[in-house]
Amino acid sequence: MKDRYESPLSSRYASAYMLRLFSAETRVRTWRRLWVALARAEHNLGLPITGEQVAELEAHIEDIDFELAAQREREVRHDVMAHVYTYGKAAPSAAGVIHLGATSCYVTDNADLILYREGLRYLRGQLLAVLRNLSHFAGQHKSTPTLGYTHYQPAQLVTVGKRATLWMQDLLADLEELDFVLANLRFLGCRGTTGTEASFMDLFEGDGAKIDEMNRQIAGEFGFDQCFPVCGQTYPRKVDSRILNCLSAIAQSCYRMANDIRLLQHDRQVEEPFEKNQIGSSAMAYKRNPMRSERICSLSRYLMADAMNAPLTASVQWLERTLDDSANRRISMPEGFLCADAVLRLSQNVTDGLHVNEKVVDRTVREYLPFIATENLMMEGVKRGGDRQELHERIRTCSMAATARMKEGESCDLLARLAAEPAFGMTESEMESVLDPALYTGRCAEQVEAFLRQVEPLLADASREKPEINL
Question: What is the pTM of this model?
């Protein structure tokens, strides 16, 4: 329908996987699986729920009547109870035992934790794909000299590959954080209206061991080995902060990388992929705008801002719970995942086809190399009997003069100026002999090789297969 607002995250940017993961169908199907798991555990522990009822619930996980649920929600103003009603219509013999002893957060919060875990696992694969691309790029260009910049002013030489390892290092830090979040993700379980499990104390006649076993069985069915030791009605909203902070960190790293690429593309040193029939500008047909890198930056800004929702929500959770988190979380959490997905997909595309214009890079290096070589020239001048302080002053004044000439559009004549200074005792030809860019990249190639050796086992072990939703 084109006469209704549609989020660009769903219509333009996010993957089919992530859209499906956070769809209403996947969410409600997960609710039903949670209701089945609860009924099964209660049956196993002796409550009056039959195996046939559990089987009927299990047989009707997929056939969700969303129209009936929407009609019922308009009547009762409660989405979970509308779906309890709808599920009961699909499985009538079990209708009376659905949601026994539970509160709404049993399905909503546990389902969210399940979806977030699957989303994080998927993003982990996306992140590794970016790292694989950059690893290949860094290895390919480990020895390609390029002008380094500090303050975005020309500085000493680095290599193209070494610069890519800086991007990789940021993304590896994000991977470590993501793995930490995944490793420490816990299940809420079925804990009652204020987290006291009072309803289950009644159902199990005061047998706390059965309540613990019920929660272990439910958590285990969904692949969680721990529940939160204590909670209110919901799982701690600090979890959402931890997750969105992790996604924001990924956005920060991708933004930094994409911004660097944009700067380098301005100088024509590096270019993101550009399709044969791509249009760079509606008015200026010659343009090759770095639009994918710009999009990474644009979406990353949104994600970093979106991540602020979680701490603002976590900080105002009153006592055992309040409902002012609900509407915010329905938007901020899925959109955080969809946006991170979009950022990483774009980053994969850019890093997979990143092109280095080596002649432009070399020309830029050569333009500034006389300035970079001045320390070596000064040392050679000292060896030939010159005074270090005097040579430094001659370099300073000649550099300023050469720079002023370059600002007028003329070529750099620094070497000619220095050769004309008797204090150096060197001809211009002798000075040019030290203008090999490889002499000024330090240990860049060695650093790249050592870094990639450390990363290689991680990338080699990572599955290249995109996970299928199995909820």
Answer: 0.91
Look at residue 470 in the predicted model and tell me its pLDDT. Answer: 57
Classify residue 183 as exposed, middle or buried by CB count within 10 Å of its CB (0-12, 13-18, 19+): exposed
8 A C-beta contact, residue 448 and residue 165: yes
- Please name the residues in contact with 471: beta carbons below 8 A apart, sequence gap of 6 or more: 21, 26, 29, 30, 33, 114, 115, 118
Q: What does the pLDDT read at residue 288?
A: 72
Is 281 catalytic? The answer is yes
Residue 298 has pLDDT above 90, yes or no: yes
User: Which residues on adjacent β-strands are paired with residue 150?
Assistant: 153
Tally of CB atoms within 10 A around 176: 11
241 within 8 A of 315, measured Cβ to Cβ: no
Q: Please give the C-alpha separations between residue 278 and each of 13, 84, 282, 289, 355, in angstroms, as whole numbers.
A: 18, 51, 11, 10, 16
For the CA atoms of 224, 228, 233, 235, the dihedral, rounded to the nearest 10 degrees, stands at -70
Catalytic pick among 281, 315, 326, 433 = 281
Question: Could you tell me which residues come within 8 angstroms of residue 454 by beta carbon, excluding any fewer than 6 positions away?
Answer: none
Per-residue pLDDT averaged across 260-281, rounded? 81
Task: Establish whether 151 is a catalytic residue.
Answer: yes
From the list 151, 282, 411, 463, the catalytic residue is 151
pLDDT-above-90 percentage for the chain: 77
Q: What is the dihedral of CA 140, 146, 150, 151, to 10 degrees?
A: -100
Q: How far apart are CA 13 and CA 296, in angstroms?
A: 10
CA distance linking residue 297 with residue 259, whole number of Å: 7
Of 108, 18, 37, 26, which Cα lies nearest the Cα of 62? 26
Rg (CA), the chain: 31
Measure the CA–CA gap between 56 and 59, rounded to whole angstroms.
5
Whole-number Å distance between alpha carbons of 191 and 215: 8
Taking only the tens place, the pLDDT of each residue in 19-44 is 999 999 999 999 999 999 999 999 99
Q: Judging by DSSP bridges, how do beta strands 355-356 and 270-271 pair with one another?
A: antiparallel
- Under a CB-based contact definition with an 8 Å cutoff, are residues 438 and 96 in contact? no
Euclidean distance between CA atoms 30 and 271, whole angstroms: 44
Using one digit for the tens of pLDDT, what is the confidence trace for 372-431? 888 888 888 899 988 999 999 999 999 999 999 989 988 889 999 999 999 888 888 888
In 3D space, the residue among 420, 410, 247 whose CA is nearest the CA of residue 343 turns out to be 247
